[in-house]
């Protein structure tokens, strides 16, 4: 069994290395259709995942969406994911010369104004659009940017991901790192990207409504923000027409404080979740509907 697992990990790693090499060799006019093809093939083959997406769309939107609309959202999700992947692996080589010009920036002043207070900020987001590119864009705009990330199952794959992030001027903070690292980053006025649309038993979470249904949601970032004065700024990077992107920073999320820190953290997280739900509803085919968000027995993110 261990041998099979090792062979599988080797296959994934060397395939990833080959694809990264190939995607960086070819022009974007070819790699975007390539990504779309990879996504379309995945859509055609992964029938169980398609069924899960269908189920989750029904939970979230009920009869607001027709069957054909759910079908289209599912198909577009896979295609968008393939295209996003081909762009993110090109960041190291092509961000300045190619990708930056493809990003329309909206509301960056919200993030910069929040950071100007000197207490740091959380760039609160979810698994929507090209969330890896979102962090790169903020960093390339002169913002000291870090992301909180879980270590991958294969150290070699983790090294590939870290190298790509470092090339985009992003500092990686592992979930296993000391909390002091995170606090110091905020203290020096930096921004930390955090995705709060997936629960995990490994971090502090509470059941908070997600599209009207309770779902395990991390609240640690809200507790830290309330204790340190760090801002909570919703940030996103979504796909728009003609294979371009839009970086969106929204107005800082605030609440009226009480003497109950735990309750305040839940209310602050809920307010941030509302912002994420709103952007998902605008760009339905760009959120990771694969995630079994409402299954309280499945507490690890996809």
Describe the structure.
The protein is α/β, with parallel strands linked by helices. It has one domain. 53% of the residues lie in helices and 17% in strands. The chain contains eleven helices and nine strands. The strands form two sheets. It has a seven-stranded mixed sheet with strand order 1-9-8-2-5-3-4, sandwiched between helices. It is globular and about 55 Å long.
Report the sheet with the most strands, covering strand number, pairing sense and barrel closure. 7 strands, mixed
Q: Distance between termini?
A: 23 Å
General form: globular
Q: pLDDT average, as an integer?
A: 93
Instruction: Please estimate the helix content.
Output: 40-55%
Percentage of residues in strands:
15-25%
Strand arrangement within the widest β-sheet reads 1-9-8-2-5-3-4
Q: What's the gyration radius in Å?
A: 19 Å
| Uncertain stretches | 297-302
Number of strands: 9
| SSE string, helices as H and strands as E | HHHHHEHEHEHEHEEEHEEH
Number of helices: 11
Determine the structural class based on helices, strands and strand pairing.
alpha/beta
- Kindly give the count of domains: 1
Spell out the blueprint of helices and strands:
Elements: H1 2-25, H2 28-45, H3 47-61, H4 67-88, H5 91-99, E1 103-106, H6 108-115, E2 121-125, H7 131-140, E3 145-149, H8 155-167, E4 170-174, H9 179-187, E5 191-195, E6 205-210, E7 213-218, H10 220-228, E8 231-240, E9 244-249, H11 261-282
Parallel strand pairs: 1-9, 2-5, 2-8, 3-4, 3-5
Antiparallel strand pairs: 6-7, 8-9
Helix pairs in contact: 2-4, 3-4, 10-11
